[in-house]
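$ run holo --ligand "iron/sulfur cluster" --emit tokens
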Amino acid sequence: MRKVIYFFTGTGNSLVVARDIAEIIGANLVPIPSLIHREEITSDAESIGIVYPVYNQGVPFIVKRFVDLMNDLNSKYIFAVCTHGGSSGISLEYLDKMLHEKNGSLAAGFSVRMPYNYVIPSLKLKNFFRSFVLKEINPKKQQEFYNNWRLKLDDICRVVQSRQKRKLEVMAKAIEHLVDFLNLRETLQKSTWLKIGGFKEKTNLPFQESLQLLDHGFTSDHKCQSCGICTKVCPVENIEMVNGRPVWQHHCEQCFACLQWCPNASIQFGYATSTGKRYHHPDVKLSDMYWQKTGLK
Ligand SMILES: Cc1cc2nc3c(=O)[nH]c(=O)nc-3n(C[C@H](O)[C@H](O)[C@H](O)COP(=O)(O)O)c2cc1C
Ligand code: SF4
Ligand code: SF4
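-- output --
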């Protein structure tokens, strides 16, 4: 039986998860960004996996666009694994809804705790919205997440190998449904994140899509050596080098790959990320990130 796992990653957590599962169940591993410019996506696999990081308790915009491009999914066995840094919310329910529009549905959905790769409030009141910091990751905790993933891996593989159904692993379901009921994602959450990203105008884009504008918050400082790595790891060609420095083009996935992979920690988001330690999964290399974008090994 043909199996394929599609994945998206910014700092490697989701790639490791996708790669580990693919090795055990014998699936073909395909990077989502390498397909995203196609007019449509058809898969001849009977089993399809989708692995991605949770963004704002939801699904990255690129994963939504990927599902939108897929042809009829009727009769496919589909499973998903989302990686997250503490709360996956109802991300898998959102993905399931997207798949329904393609006549598909999630037979099983798993969430995997991994190191958090984004920013958190620094609790400074002055310039609050621009003072978010990178979360410190305790090395012991980090190893614990990796070990726990190895413990969960076999169970996931058993379920998907035998095409079983499994309840979607969601967190804080009642709260997240209330947030949706009150439309807080499209109002409070959207305006807060746009402010954090330093975007001062108004936009009618839905919240998930409006994250593309948060790259107004990125700058590169004096440590930049013009190496161009940020342009190469960006999964969606959102960075151009101008006079040896990165310039963001406002169709960002907010994956944080540019900030986290810059070898000189030169890329900042807001005013308070310069002292934070950069993170990427130790088993993922720059060449994996280039492959994600191009599909070429
Ligand atoms: C834009 C953005 C939003 C995020 N939102 C959440 C979130 O709502 N809940 C959570 O637990 N982690 C969140 N995270 C953390 C990632 O989901 C987590 O670190 C994930 O494992 C990263 O996967 P990757 O290494 O494959 O990119 C967010 C990260 C980013 C970049
Ligand atoms: S990766 Fe860092 S050092 Fe290299 S060009 Fe980009 S900002 Fe400059
Ligand atoms: S600009 Fe940076 S954060 Fe935005 S998609 Fe590219 S690598 Fe990701």
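-- notes --
The domain at 3-123+136-172 is CATH 3.40.50.360 (Rossmann fold).
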